[in-house]
Alcohol dehydrogenase, class IV
Amino acid sequence: MDQFISPKKIYHGEGALAKLEDILQELKVERIFILTDPILKSLGVIDPLLKIMDRIDVRVDVVTNVVPEPPLESGNQVVEEARDKQPDLVIGIGGGSALDLAKIAAVLAGNNGRVEDYLNLSGTRKLVNKGLPKVLIPTTSGTGAEVTDIAVFSLENTKDVITHEYLLADYAIVDPALTYTLPPRVTAASGIDALTHAVEAYTSVNSTPLTDSLSLDAMKRIAGNIRTAVWNGKDEHARDQMALGSLLAGLSFYNAGVAGVHALAYPLGGLFKISHGESNAVLLPYVYDHIWMACMDKMKNIAVALSLPIDGKTDREVAQQVVRGFLDLIKDVGLPATIRDYNIKSTDIDVLTENGVQQTRLLARSPKVLDENSIKQIYTNAYEGLLQNS
């Protein structure tokens, strides 16, 4: 039997942000804790939120302790601020880091302990209270964090997560208008991140017919619009399709799970502070170059979603074409295609492998087993820019 989980309510489309007023009135809140990126605050991105709150006369605390790829220290800081402010509602607006921190602030405000106490790999405590209600509003089209129950934190050498149903948003608002001013590199990295979510969910051992439908739709929307969104960011249709594609991919991977690309991307972020989106992007072709033979039945549908020609080609040729298509797409949107481009040395591959092997939660969903030798080979190929099987 399959199941599917999502936030209580999701609003998508240009102008969706206006629904926030209805939400605030529905919840009858008096004090709101807004967590956002300091740059977004300085650019006035959150001003429309503040205007809504002015109209209904609520007290607002705006906190900007958001840093990319947040370490545990950042998580604990926002938790303490939320506990101190004692709000009725937490609103996270920004990229994945802001949304993840908002989840933690809302939940741990109603629980004891620190962030590290609840980590997947090393934590020893269990969440007992749901905490505060939360509204999550993404300003990028990529992470899907607004519809997942995962919060990611950077450790010294890798990353770890807190995952629990209590972290799931009560309301998610996806308004593409909030992405219109994203610069090309952020658009590219977040967009390939969303594509990776869709692809990995589709080939996950935990995929279902429902998640497959969402994944394929997401791939089609993202692959068909990401180049335009990156290089002509004012194209509102492309921005809307990217926002919707990211949302669909988020719903899909939250239910089916991601796998090897994310598992191997975590050490890149932890050790070398490469953004999550770019970590996924640089590994996507090389992981699938290694595993396509275990999911050949699905590679043909991925090819169709990516608008790659399949007539007259064998299943093997189609799968190989998809892998090369991933690499071409990453280059087309201006992202690095090897980990060497991030000043990673060949001598770093052993420590990357050592940390990648630890991501058992993610590796377990791969259609092909990724053992230590496989992981080392993938990192080596990503360093050399080599597609061995494609």
